[in-house]
């Protein structure tokens, strides 16, 4: 429930400076209904058609409001909201809302930040809205703060601290800590301190609670399908009597750090991380856009960041310069606008990466982007739907969450869309280049060099000086141009040869002339987007050890090749101009090519997909570069104690030649360019034994015609892929490693046993059982014994496999390991006891709710249809999931639970602190 760095996600997402004093003022969405009660509490209602309801209770109190002896209290109070209130004693709030399908985590949760605490509740409909308002009122002044509950929760919070705090943190968090050093933020981690948490009492918590939970610091948000007038009456009846210290609503305020805060020159990456560099660009005080001009300034800045990233990515490829990641985005510096360009690489490439970044930054500053680059960016922006007008309640809630940081309600999406479209119509190349010149000037920049563990930083100042000397010099002109791409259409077009058959409601099947089966699901509304998947059995399970190593080199080798007569860059820009995304993917037992395309460009997108399948050519230069990069990256990763532990665990459970066994450096070193091309031909060389799956809102005949015309002549002579069964160590075993740099112990228990072939009923039954057993596992390990904050349970038979794998994990204090060990018999007994009707019904409601929430997502639907068809599951489960769920009673789930650990190979892996006994 704690997000230590939540501010970093959104504090600097909104920025801008007024360019035109008389520019029109932005207005909040008029659909908001807001009011302030006489006690200063504010509420905001946003009705949307549909049934779902999102509620947020926002309290302006966080870790910055605590005294030194109260460190962690705001976060502790947040925990106690779930541990007992007047109307929901103990943990009964979870049980109460589980009856309508609400799950802890995604549906009911909370977060404590530096300056506010936010409680979240997501309901499937309005029926339990009065109960939700009861609970939120209880949170406001009715927490019981029982002594026993407080004492028990201390262990849970320490367990959360163990999860979130590492001795050797990732370098981005080290950078964050360095930036907030010498400010209140560094000493106000919401989790608190060991000393204050050990001394906490119910009385001290209540004093803090009574002081800060006042009506004028509270805002309530309700979004979704409800009657506004009825909800207004309920809110006013429920909250008007809430106590307050002032009738004036308290605005939220951000505490800025010192404006002269400097980025550090050097940092060390943790073991297993790549070296990196960060170039920061400061850009003044952070302000929320109040006018149209300021909003356009913000969007222009988005385009600047994308322009720099686009130039660097393409120049790195042209210079044959490998990297492990490149991203340019808003950084975190409370109160100020700052942007961070981050590049990760292997240490041998550091001087070349520094030089390339400096040269390209100087070039962009002094000469800007080319017309082709500018037009490409505009086309990309035009093809994206940044501001959906038809929003789900959860999307509106996320906007409120961000905008309330600036004490305002979100702008209407229709106004944002209109403004954004006008921005794209009006923007010119000179606008973008002027902004590049302004932002990229040397005085705005500072460089942070991230070194690998154990590297010398002796030459850091020399490298910084070299970078800055290159940046301040006049940049060279870089001529970037993109070819006009005209992908030829097949000649002649293939015509439909058989009628489509309706397999289930809105699901149609037909066969293409080349023998490929096609399955189409027609959505009522998919926001004018179409999803296409070509999928076949095979995947990693069909590969040899060398082929698995070749797979890790395959995608970069082909991504940097060419497509027919079109270069990889020109082909990518062509797809981006259409808003099309094509991704080859390889899973455990299947492989696919997926495509997202705006429906208006379906024909062009399918033609580009066909052309890619028929004409893609790999790059041997890219292969050699990627092989060197990957081997070095793996060498770095294997210095991590966590990587060593994971590999030891996997080797124990899945010894070679199992397709789940970990690969070695020697495996990668033996891979040749011919191995990669051979693997590509095996997977994607033609579409033999592939099927086509489409989800769209287009009419059936239109989809059938265009899919047949563009894909009906693809080559389909590839032999059927034979899938190997998963090999595992049937004797079981134990791995114990004393490697962890943290004072915590990680325990994982795995049980593997044979299972029967899956059916649609067993797919749903496993899902239901996992929900029931995760709740039971949480109740013992977290709630009853306070051993682990996020104890994890899962038990699944993966598609195409004949074994069920059950996994339980816990992250505990080292002195609690023996207690956990003694609890395993109790845990296994609790997990295998009969499932009650209440447990079954709660899990069923959760599953139905999750399923129907996903029915509006075309990407989820096309993946589900491909999965169900590929593995022979009844399509009834897609269209009428509640009918399948109805067949699965608690007796069925009880039988499954009772054999959970029977005749299973047992594995235990334990990662202990270094030098632990």
From TrEMBL:
Where does the UniProt annotation place the signal sequence? 1-20
Instruction: Spell out the PROSITE patterns in the cross-references.
Output: INSULINASE, PROKAR_LIPOPROTEIN
Record flagged with keyword Protease: yes
Q: Which InterPro entries match?
A: Metalloenz_LuxS/M16, Pept_M16_N, Pept_M16_Zn_BS, Peptidase_M16, Peptidase_M16_C
Boundaries of every Peptidase M16 N-terminal domain copy? 52-162
Q: Which UniProt keywords apply?
A: Hydrolase, Metal-binding, Metalloprotease, Protease, Signal, Zinc
What's the Enzyme Commission number for this chain? 3.4.24.55
* A single MF term (Gene Ontology): metal ion binding
Domain Peptidase M16 C-terminal, chain residue ranges per copy: 200-282, 670-847
What cofactor is needed? Zn(2+)
What is a single Pfam family found in this protein's UniProt entry? Peptidase_M16_C
Q: Name one GO biological process term.
A: proteolysis
Q: Which family does it belong to?
A: Belongs to the peptidase M16 family.
Specify the protein name: Protease 3
Q: Which organism is it from?
A: Grimontia marina
